[in-house]
Amino acid sequence: MGTQAATGPQARQSPAQGIALYAGGVFVLCVMDAMIKWLSADYPIAQIVFFRATIGLIPTLVMLYRPPGLEALRTRRVGAHLLRGLVGLVGTFGFFWAFAVMPLADAYAIGFAAPMFITAMSVPILGERVGLKRWLAVLVGFAGVLIMIRPGGEGAFGGGAAIALVATAAYALSMVLIRLYSRTETNAAMIFYATLVIIVVAGVQMPFVWVTPSWTDAGLLTLLGLLGGIGTIMMAQAYRVATPSIVVPFEYTGMIWGVALGFMIWGDMPDLWIWVGSAIVVASGLYILHRETRSRAPSPPAGTGVPAS
Is the dihedral of CA 145, 235, 66, 179 positive or negative? Predict the structure, then answer.
């Protein structure tokens, strides 16, 4: 459920507005994820991804009416955008697949390991220095992940957790690449071209996997794309009006909505090990965020959960 920093000038700071936007964006994306899980029973993942990316691009295009407009898409780093798009493709397909085969709350809990991956990847890719305390937080966080997936035991590892873990790593790499490319590229360009890659790759699969939806399902597929775009913009706007240290912790409200939606619609409830492991992962993620906020102002800030694109 993470997102990118907003484009444009920094808006006037309003912590309350930032929290409302971010928490609201998380809720909107959780509803979208529930719709993805619901529709995955009847439609291939590639088709759902195609609708999510294509329709979800509309709110982003609307944002380009603001200055600097289409100039924000100017780039000389086509290869960089292609790479981030392919990484984002792995994350998007992975999470959508995980939503289809495991409870939402379980997928979210594993997705909360993203800050650990981001911290570890920032060393070789960005050349950042990570202190001993943050490395210990990363190790503790990964221990929480192992508690949740319980490899070799009777846990969820064979039920989609491995897919969710790969998707989380891909999402984390995407966030690190955003930090790297933000030195020369606008956030609008990074969002647009990465989404375009997903649309093209999912689109070429349509002649082979397409299932004609009913009018009701067509409406749901369209709605989930709009919700994805709107939720992403809400969270991006939150970064413009409040600091990351204020809004990012509200990413974890996704667990509340994941549990609530999963229980109300499918009767799912996380087991004890998911609760224990996710508590450890959340605590580690919040500590990493605290240390990063003290050491520097992240730009863009690292999301902590499921990707929004």
Answer: negative
